[in-house]
Amino acid sequence: MKKRMKKTKKGYGKKALSVSLSMALMLGGTAPVQAADLFSDQTAEESTSMELYPEENTAEESNTADFAADETENGAEDFSAGQEDQADEFSAGDEDSSKAAVAEVQSASHVISTAADLPTGGIAEGETYELAADITLTSGQQISSIAGTLDGKGHVITLADKPLADKVSGTIQNLGVAGSSTLTLSDGQGSVANTVTGTIQNCYSTVSSNAASDYMDTIGGFVGNLQGTVTNCYFAGNTDMFGGGIAATNGGSYKISHTLWASGMSAVGMGRTDNISDDSKTKMTADQIKASVDILNTEIPSTGFRWALPSDGSNNGFPVLTEGSGTPAEVNWDSLKAAIESTEKLTESDYTETSWKAVSEALAEAREMLDAGTASQSEVNAAAKKLSDAVNALKKQKPEAPVKIPEGVTVTHITSADQIENIWSGTEGQYYVLDNDITLTGDYMNFCEFNGVFDGQGHTVTLKDSQGLFTRVGESGVVQNTAFKGTIGNVWENTGALGGSIKGAVLNCSVEISGSYACGFAKKLSGGVIANSISFGESPKGALFAQYETADDPGLVKNCYWTDTLSMPSVPEGVLVNSTSRDETEMKTLDLVDVLNNGRGDNGTKWGQSSEGFPYFGENQSYKPDTEVWPELPAENQYQVEFSAYNGSAKETLTDSRLQVSPDSVNAFKVAGRLSLKDYQAPEGSHLEWNCTEMKPSGAMAMDLSSGDLYVYRNGKTLITATQINSDGSSKVVAYVSVIATTKKIEAVRLLIDGQDITNGSFTVAGSETKKIQVQGKYTGEDDFSDMAFSSFLYKAADGSVISNDESYSSFFFLKPGTSSITVSSKAQPDISAKVDLTSTYVPIESIVPGMSGQQVIHGRNANSDGQEEDGRVAFNPIPGSAVVTPTNASYASDWTITSSDDTIGYYSNGSKVFVPKQSGKVTYTAEIKDTDPETGKTRTITGTSEVEFVYKNPLTSVTSPVTEVTVRSGESQDIDLSFTGEISDQGYNVTDPSMKWTFDKKGVVVITKKTSGYWKRQDGAPDTNNYFIGTDYRITGIGEGTVIATGTPVDQTNSPEPVKIRLTVTKGDGQDTDNKKLASEDVEKAVSYLTDLHQEKGYQYGDEWVVYALLRSGQTIDQDKLDAYYESVCATVKGWSADQKPTDIERVSLALTAMGKDITNVDGVNLAAMIYNSEKLKNGSNELIYALIALDAADIQIPGNAKWNRASIIRALGEFQNPTTGGIGLTDAKGGSSDITAMALQALAVYRNHNTAAKNISDKALTYLANAMGDDFGYGTCESTAQVLLALTSMGIDPLSDDFGTVNMNMITNLTGYIQSDNGFSHSMSISKSSEMSTVQALQALDSYRRFVNKETTYWDLKNKGEHAKHSWDAGTVTKKSTCKTKGTKSYTCTWCGEKKTESTALAAHKWSSWKTTKSATVFAPKQITRTCSVCAKKETKNSGSKLKPTIKLNAYGIRLNPGKSTSKVKVSGLAKGDSVKSWKSSNTAIVKVDKKGVITAQKKTGTAYITVTLASKKTAKLKVVVQKGTVRTAAITGLQSRITISKGKTTTLKPIRRPITSAEKLTYSSSNKAVATVSSKGVVRGVKKGTAVITVRSGKVSYKCRVTVK
């Protein structure tokens, strides 16, 4: 028996397929057994009594072996060798494998052998269909739905004209899918399935497909809409270039892993990429897929099949599915080793602590994995990627001392503010040195995030009501050795000398600025470093910065000092290092100068003491400290001075007329108290005035002129005078007061709300009610607490999402129900603090309405909206207002929005909380708010409306023209003064809306434009003076000869004023038509002159790309040394770029280098072209796509097939930014659209417009948009927008003097001349008299492009003289309709350059034979019959193949025992070869046992042994030993069980033991050794009760079997 068992184990894997077939045969019914009976239903008892796999048992079951031996002894000699072999094969074996095979056969309830077997009606849940052969489907065949399992068993289904399945909620596995022709798929379809919510695993498709619609449909190579899982699969067919290689779209809980694809734009055509494994994200070539079997076998599901390359070259050499678990692919550790080695070369101290921590953790994990050596390939890949990602995210440690400028680098020397103003971008890696002091005036603007090094060399930047030097200091920016002073202006939010935020480093600098919004160096410290710097002066919003912003790096303020009159926000512990406030005396010491010089490092400018005492850059100057503490009284007082403190304490008479106060001891209005003169009585007609003189610092205190109230804002001192003003105008000082304000030391603070002491305690608020925290302090040496000024403290909320408060103010309210705390700390003494825990209870909302209703009178305009509104109109002054929520303290009272029914009449700005009128009319405002009950979690939406009517203060009643006829010469203009009268114009009011709409009975003769958009009314005595109004001055310009009637219709129709009609005649006059070519050439020269002068000294460097391109393209020669310097700066910059670099940076540089004749595929080893076409950020905005196309075309780049982007996908993506209604193209989405972006897009599409359908569709709509957007002056509002449109038209070969866009005398060329300034530069707008480098560059580009257009030269961006893309580069093509004998087929071709498609007919096909298919299966009587069919004409050929089948037979038992007179039908026959059947049952001794034709065996009265012979139609026989005995038939063995099983707590499993012999009369019983762990029922159902182990004993008679059960 043991030998046989070993033999069986060894042979099992090799015979798995025959095992499956034999097992399937065993499931048949009673004899005679036919092939049709192989899958008939069985009862539970019958299926468990077949017992094909008797198991190895314990010692107590040794009688099983004896019984088997007895059988062998008495009957084995009659068994043929073949039967014995078969008996061996099924008598013993590996228990788990055997059971798996049984489970497999039991679930495989359907077999697909031919296309006719395909379950087109669907596969129900719980059903499994298995392929037994390759099949080819016929037209229309498709499985409607798969809820169960379709198992291909490694076979291939060849499709006809539809995807294999429509919907898959179950599983498809182990299947290959091929195509007999190219599928035409609609949107959201794929070759294997259209919609997948289930799983597709271990499958492949080589089907080629095309989209039904070229423009709109998105299809998938493998599947359509994926909501489920695709794993360990590949797609090697061809599909639409805009589609997805794996899926068309995705969503839900989709997953794609270890799946390869060779065609399509991306893994998913349109959808998410968040759950796609890294090895599935990149398109592969056919050869790459063939070399990636290890990926397909990564974490492969246990389906009985693995991937391997075909040894015979079948399947075109692509991987195929092979049986068995196979040997896992060897893990490749190279990538992980390389990542570890490169990381180990890095130095920790070079990087920030936060970013290095991620690297350290990933490196430790990688080393541990490498040492263990047990990881799978996917785990290794993931670890290598995690380490690489962490390294790529490293941030350099920011310097804490001034840095040295490396030798040999290009340095830009700054001598004027204009040079900095023209730095727009590209500062990273650049060095700037200030050579002299500079001044920034009010019109200074710079929008640059500075990321280079700016070294002031000790010079001063003075701000005169100006914005900061930069918009912000970026991550890699350094500003050092610079003094900043002056006034911040022209801003509407907190701003510092360096702008909005500091992310980089400010080193060895000083700041002394003032202004309402001034805050030291910047508004925010956002992870940056400020070191060895000082702040003094009057910076009301903060000494160094106004706000601390949490960032990846905590930020650092090291060795910094500021006057104690300035405030600083609270910052986390560790941010301030050796940094503190000092009083003015301490700031004015040589000791501080020494401290700063010790901290300036090797590259810091030396500090000295100025004549005013404060540190400055320079040598020590003569400084005499103010030794007198109290301001000196100039004379004796005539009256004693009394002081009454604000807190109501007793009035005191000042000793020596000196008063000491504190900024902490003031009321909410900063009043410390009131001064008065004792016993003073003003003479009749006289009065007393109080004033501050000799104040240090300025603004520290103030006096109320008449009341004597003393305001204290900060530490300082002043001399106060009490002056008697007499009736005759004379005056005299009657008293003086010497005042010093100092912050006193506080020992402790106490917090109160509503008078309740809540210090370090708790307080409950109802809903969102606003509360104030009153702070009381106890000064050193005093016993009592006294009220303190709220402004002396910071109020920090622990959770800003729960509590709304400004940390500078004591009031707060809750944003929602919940709990948080506020910590109050002294600004001067941060260690003095107290906390209160706050809770808000839920108060529901009852109602909401907008806070404005009824009639609203509007008149003046908002000047800030001029040119900013989307519709171009100037909005009226906004009306502040919000929503009214009832009750006012509702928990969510602040979370509302207001919308308008008509934005053209008036809208609401939810950001600014104002109603914005646009014109007269009625509008409905709707307020909406959401209210969530924290107990139920339910959210209600409450709305309310209000009706508002905007009416004009002075509506128009009439408009008149002084003339009815005007004659003007073509190309010349004449002003016309219209008179506007309104209802109350006689009171001095302007007409509220004097807008006019002009129409003409003939186009192209004349235009009427407004000269000014708006103006400020400054008229003394006028009731509406100091208001902004729209312009009323108009200009008539002749553009072509002729006569027209111009009709001016007032926009304000409140009083139905009559329109103005003027007859306009345009004559040719004495002048000639404008020579636009000459004008453009002259203006080109002006622009070139301005730009070359601007760069004469400073040359060109990274960031000057547009200037370099424009000058070179216009034919200018740039000195070679300057070009070399520029190229070197570019090389130094691009070396630091990663794949995450902003695409427009790459594209801009690429264009400049191409214009220089450089190879952009190798810029000092960097391939800029590849960075563009593989960028993950290309779809971030339309700009990125536009200049990607322009840059790649300009350099004539051939994009490889495996690139992330190609020209077709770029064009298609660009179309997604086009507004479907207007045709305009937006910057970030398709909702809006602007003239300049639309024009830029047309420039990119120009070469494709006439030969690419998608490009033409986009271009046609865009041109219509631009035609409609043109202004009356034939421009587009700004120099840049007008220039871009001119550049677009000329790039497309459209004459800008054509009817749609201009005339010979009025056009975009003439319009651009209006922007030229005296220095030959161009300004941004006509209302600005200052030239802009960017405006000049774009004007130069446009005018140069027009010049090229007129001269019939190549277009502006065509640097390689390629011309239009008129010659397509067609690919090999894809058959879309296969030829037949009767009809020609079609083949679709795609241009590999632009994606355009064409279709051609193919020749008639010859007869094509299908593969041989089995039409009659082999039987024991005849070989199989095979047939092949011509797929064209359906002709058939038939022949025999192979040999007839060898007869086989199996019995479920080869020996039984019976009592006399007993019968059994439990002996079953199975394993019959096809066509065979049971012919007869025969007993060797009918006196002992008889058997009927159905196999019912009956014991006779006589005991003894007999043999039953089962004979098949094929004459094959099998024998069964029957022993008839008088005693009870007892159980000799129990089989069919596992010795160990594991179940989960609360779950069940059923034991199915089999008694041997199968005719045993002894019943089965079950018992558990530990019912607390597992119980067992009388039917063998085991239930897990709790975690642990129990032994289940199965007993029949004296035989038992023990099964160890583990409950987890």
State the gist of this model.
This protein is 18% helix and 31% strand. With 1608 residues, it is of the alpha/beta class.
The count of strands amounts to: 107
Largest sheet: 11 strands, parallel
Shape estimate: globular
Count of individual helical segments: 26
**What would you report as the Rg, rounded to the nearest angstrom?**
46 Å
Helix content: 10-25%
N- and C-termini, Cα separation: 36 Å
Please give the oligomerization state of what you see. single chain
Unreliable runs, pLDDT <50, ≥5 residues? Answer: 1-108
Identify the notable features of this structure and list them briefly.
26 helices; eight-stranded parallel sheet; 31% strand; globular; alpha/beta; 1608 residues
Characterization of the model:
The structure is a single chain. The chain is α/β, with parallel strands linked by helices. The protein has 26 helices and 107 strands. The strands form 29 sheets. Strands 1, 2, 3, 5, 6, 8, 11, 14, 15, 17 and 18 form an eleven-stranded parallel beta sheet that branches. Strands 22-23-26-29-32-35-38-40 form an eight-stranded parallel beta sheet. A hairpin with a 5-residue loop joins strand 95 (1489-1491) and strand 96 (1497-1499). The radius of gyration is 46 Å and the shape is globular.
